[in-house]
Amino acid sequence: MIKRLIPQTEKLQIAFEIRIADDASTDAEIQKANALLAEQNQCIYTVFHENRGRTATRHFLAENALYDNLLFLDADVLPTKSDFLQIFEQNLGRAQVIFGGIAYPKILPDPERALHYTYGKSREGRSVSKRKKKPYLSLVSQHLLIDKSVFLKYNPAEENAYGLDPYFAHRLEQHQISVLHINNPTTHFGLETSASYVLKTHQALQTLVRLEHEEKMPRNYRPLQRVAQQVVKRNLQHKILRLFKTYEHHILKNLCGNNPSLRLFDLYRLCYYLKLTLEDESN
């Protein structure tokens, strides 16, 4: 990614730096490649000897950044446009947070990653007009241009968990931070296997329920939460979970197959969330 961006920096009309953090990677090839990147002009490379997690790593990068505008890019995304940086430069100052969108490869690269690919392409790879309808919940932190002071104030650096994007979005919305959606996507190549994506879904929902319990997140912020509220209002949660227990294996078989159903995935996420909330209430 850095090799693709460096030629674009030659056209920038602003001062910049590139900061790279290796969050205790154990892959020798990645370490070697990152070390070579550090030799590039204006690149600063930091290696952590223990894993800090994505949120804390970003906070470290932000705290040490020299300039007031931060462009975060995950290691597994690539800009789709040759003037990616220039487009962001042209939009500086229009909002405190600017998001260009997420794209996915045109062809499924591996059938074992079909769930992540299908979900990402359908639910995350949205047009500017669709993202504007839910400007905060449409933010994906894989790439984000954000005012440094805003990021340091509202990034949940105290948390080390998976699935914190909705919490970050909620904090931005709470404080009426301005958000601009533009057409300047990155393509997400770091797809999880379907089994791993299901496990990460578990982790994200566990994070959500914990944040609700700690009263850091409202219980009606995401569509999933609002659907669950309607289920509970009609006292259907126990019946649904009994059916879920019977058919869970069959649902997982579909989700980990070559043609996963997003409706079944929505149902699976709803049931797992209901299960977690009932467990939380009983503790």
Identify the overall geometry.
globular
- The total tally of domains equals 2
| CATH level-3 fold name of the largest domain | Spore Coat Polysaccharide Biosynthesis Protein SpsA, Chain A
The CATH fourth-level homologous superfamily of the largest domain: Spore Coat Polysaccharide Biosynthesis Protein SpsA, Chain A
Mean pLDDT: 91
Order of helices and strands: HEHEHEEHEEHHEHHEEHHHH
**Strand order, sheet with most strands:** 3-7-5-8
**Residue fraction in strands:** 5-15%
User: How is the main sheet built?
Assistant: 4 strands, mixed
Task: Report the span from N to C terminus.
Answer: 46 Å
Residue share in helix: 40-55%
Number of helices: 12
Poorly predicted runs: none
State the CATH class of the largest domain. Alpha Beta
Structural class: alpha/beta
**CATH architecture type of the largest domain:** Alpha-Beta Complex
How many DSSP-defined strands? Answer: 9
Radius of gyration: 20 Å
Organism: Leeuwenhoekiella palythoae
Protein name: Glycosyltransferase involved in cell wall biosynthesis
InterPro entries: Glyco_trans_2-like, Nucleotide-diphossugar_trans
Domain Glycosyltransferase 2-like: 14-107
